[in-house]
Task: structure prediction
Amino acid sequence: MGYWEADSADATDFWISPELAAFYELETDDGFIAIAKVRERYLSESRKILEAHYAACWAGQPYAVQTKLRKPDGTLLDCVVHGEPEFDVHGEVRRVSGIVRDITQETSALRRLADSEQRLADFVSTASDWCWESDADHRLLPYPKSLAGNAAFQTVAAGRKARWELAYAPEDEAAMARHRADMEAHRPFRDFTYTLIGEDGSRVSICTSGKPIFAEDGCFLGYRGTSSDITQLEAARALLDQRTRALEEAHRLGKIGTWSYRLDRGRAVWATELYQLLGFEPDRFEPTYQNIRPYFLDGEADRFRDMQNRVLRTCRTEATDLRMRHADGTVRDLAVICKAEIAHDKVIGIIGTVQDVTERKEAERQLEQLAYSDPLTGLANRALFKRQLASMIESCARDGQSGALLLIDLDRFKEVNDSLGHAAGDELLIHVAAVLRQELGPSPFIARLGGDEFAVLAEERGMSHVALAGLADRLIARLSGPVNLAEGEAFVGATIGIARLPEHGATTESAVRNADLALYMAKEAGRGRAQLFDPVYAQAADQRLDLGRHLRHAVETGALKAHYQPQVDLRSGRVTGFEALLRWTHPERGPISPAEFIPIAESSGLIVDLGLWVLREACRQGRAWLDAGLPARSVSVNVSPAQIWNGDFETAVSAVLAETGFPAHLLCLELTESLFVDHTEQRISRTLTSLSGLGVRLALDDFGSGYSSLGYLTRLPFDLLKVDRAFVDGVSSAPEKRKLLGGIIALSHGLGMTVVAEGAELQAEVDVLRSLKCDLVQGFVFSPPIVSEQAPLVAIGIEHEAGRSQQRRNRVLAQ
Ligand code: C2E
Ligand code: MG
Ligand code: MG
Result:
């Protein structure tokens, strides 16, 4: 600050104090300096103003002007120039003086303050939060700069009320009381949240923080603070809460737990629900792989880890079912879903859900139990067998395991069922199931496929062929023999076909077919035995299949023919009848023996049609011969068991007789002992009696070739006994055979039966047969089977020849 004075309005000089000279950085002449020089320091616009004021001052006007001056180095300074007139006694201005003050620092401080106020105002007005102040009575004061944005607060502040006097939500009551206590105790507070209710019922949630303000003497002045409108945030939080709760509830109800694993942290984090689900305490159990591993059921831990690794590798979400032990020891079924967690295109971990599906699985298992078990024996049924077989084949292919499929067929089961009744049959099946279980133990899979057919799937694990055969033999031994049932004693046996896996079956179908073929071969070989599949069976089966197809075609196109073989009465030398024998000429293979194609027709069911065709053809032929005036001769027709047991054979026979007009007493039906297999004597007897009731004759064919039981002969209504070729062949040279044959013939005669010897090829055999009093002979020695056209001629030839040899014999006798 400096002083100046001028003594005359006209003077061009005036006096300035040394401070001013220094301030202006001007040289003076003992304090005197040209006014113009000083004025040069001022900016041109202030210069005029100052000049005017200075002139006015000489007219008696004091002044104070804020202005700027430029220092020689160019910097600008703020200063206030002040001037005052001094009056003489006459009231005239005598002198003018004043001071000049450098206010640069002052003004820049003020400017800074204004700047900072503006800055604050800018922040506050653009922030979503607002500032507030309350007075010593806690009344909210308007805070104009920041209120513009918030209508709610404007009304609040306009009312000049304390916060607790506002219309707030009733549920805030207690919190508000605490808040009031805080404020009245002049304590700072943070994030106090409350909800204001508008007149229209709208709700605005506010979060506020504040601190008390005290005067220097410690007197409480009020509060200052900030608030923010958190209505939307609250709404979002409420929604989130609600959703979280709903999700938690859903997880709880659905027994779902979640977990995550972060690659960087290298450990799993379980949600509370997951701990609950598995019965662990969150603080006591750390879900590391080592800790969890023992709770998995065998192999499951590795499988689960593999799956997680796969998910991390492929980023493909996977789901699986696992079995795990709960902390309480019970086994739980868990449905697990694993998903890769990805951030910025990088896999950062894995997240998953675990759902306890024990109850559902249990229900499924029960359903499965119902759907897949045989209600009678409790064993698995065919459907489950198929599944199990498929999975065994799969594991053979996958893990190089091996196994065996055993198909077990009971022998004579039908007999038990027929003779002792179904209850006994059921009892027997239950017994068999029990025996199988006992003999095999729990590990092999046992199923009842239906009827009297059982299957066993054994994991071989190094079992040799011999051991496998041993197992089969043991089963047969255990299943053969008398079984005591409530209804009586049953005598059954078992036959087993075996296919080894994987070599004998790459699919369930081929495995079953091959085991079945082995079973078929075992049955063919005489039942009560086990047979391992051999690939040649399949070839044979294929051939049979092929033959079967052609045969059906042959039946349809009439490529079959009946040939006739004469039967000669040894006493009279007359041809008393013919046996009709089927002949088939295969388009590629030429003539095929009935010994080959009849069994195929039998196993395919074709025999029923085929047999009926032969029967009709033979009767038609017999009738034609009668009509041609030939002597009455019988016609024998071979009948397969299937014809008798499948369908109404008796009706078919009488229909054919009626249709052809062939006399019933000339028809002879040839049956073999295979008829007796699987049927009770009662049933057989009933059937045969009704057949012979039609007036036809019945012959027991091939006697002596199978398991002949003379007992049958005494009780069943057979008219003829055809002795098998095996007895006839070589009878002329083997005395024991001759004795045996003699016995059979005598016995048959004793039972009133006519004896036919089959397959005599030599005259010597005929001679022996004659001496043994055999009634009829059929064999190549007289004629092979021949076409129908030739049959009458051949018969004449035979009879003629017989007459001549009779004459020869008579001559010999006469000599
Ligand atoms: P089978 O009923 O025992 O017929 C007798 C078989 O012995 C016939 O064989 C016949 O040709 C043959 N034979 C006759 N005399 C001699 C002989 O002196 N020496 C030799 N080695 N064999 C002789 P075939 O015609 O091959 O028939 C075989 C079997 O096929 C028949 O045996 C019969 O069981 C069956 N069969 C033939 N035709 C029919 C038919 O129409 N229906 C049924 N169900 N089976 C038939
Ligand atoms: Mg025959
Ligand atoms: Mg025969």
